[in-house]
Design brief:
The protein is mostly helical. It is 57% helix and 2% strand.
């Protein structure tokens, strides 16, 4: 079973022999995930946090080290995490913030994940030399494979309009992922991905397909855009100045009338 909640993940890790202080590190990372992905959903309507937990769970099930599991839990940080600007990227300021929750090694993996090209044409070039790649890159590929599998569980890819195949390429990214996974020694993971890719959802499932082509943010109706303290202060000052100018103009007009 693949965990979909933080509690299921903690229980899985405990069953796998991880120590309490290690699970506490995962819990700290989950705290960061809540701040970055609250209100975000996958294209099929699945809460993004469940996808993140599922990716970490797959990695744990296939023997990943703690740093890889935590990076899997936060893999989309610099691609889709909400840092306040609405734009992706790993700025120095964002990386400093992330390192309050995770180790430098995990943050390095998150940056590498965001920068790693995961398209068929790139994977075709990578496949012949995958066994000679440095350990850091092999870890990123491990996380990518787990992410690809999680995207297929429960017929997930069949419940959205998101495209998973580049029609101009002979192989999809998932098919290249299977080949690369086997070359890296992740035969079981690659085998799971192959099985899930070929499953067909139950009759009528297509009527529930969402039209979103990518993940999206859906805020609750009670949400209101609030100004930061600095912006509120600046607006207050601007209003005060405007009132002062209006008062001066009104006084000048009265003086002119009297004259």
């Amino acid at each position: 079973m693949t965990a979909q909640t933080n509690l299921q993940l903690y229980n899985q890790l405990a069953s796998n022999g991880f120590k309490v202080h290690e699970i506490q590190e995962v819990d700290a990372a989950y705290g960061a995930a809540l701040r970055l992905f609250t209100g975000r959903y996958r294209a099929n309507g699945k809460p993004f946090s469940a996808h993140l937990v599922g990716t970490a769970s797959i990695l744990a099930r296939h023997g990943a080290s703690l740093d890889v599991i935590i990076a899997g839990l936060l893999h989309a940080t610099y691609l889709q995490g909400e840092f306040g600007s609405g734009k992706p990227g790993a700025s120095p300021q964002r990386r400093r913030w992330m390192r309050e929750y995770v180790s430098n090694e995990v943050d390095d993996l998150l940056v590498a994940y965001a920068q790693f090209p995961w398209k068929p044409k790139h994977l075709a070039q990578l496949a012949p030399e995958v066994t000679s790649l440095p350990e850091h890159t092999r870890k990123v590929l491990f996380i990518r494979l787990a992410n690809a599998l999680e995207d297929q569980l429960d017929f997930a890819s069949q419940f959205s309009a998101k495209k998973h195949r580049d029609d101009s390429q002979a192989k999809s990214r998932e098919e290249w992922g299977i080949e690369i996974g086997i070359a890296l020694g992740h035969d079981a993971l690659a085998g799971e991905l192959k099985v899930e890719m070929n499953k067909v959802a139950w009759t009528g499932a297509e009527t529930l397909k969402k039209q979103a082509s990518g993940s999206f943010v859906l805020a609750p109706r009670s949400h209101r855009v609030k100004c930061s303290p600095g912006l509120r202060f600046a607006l207050r000052k601007a209003v005060q100045r405007l009132k002062a100018v209006n008062f001066f103009i009104a006084g000048a007009r009265r003086t002119t009338i009297l004259l």
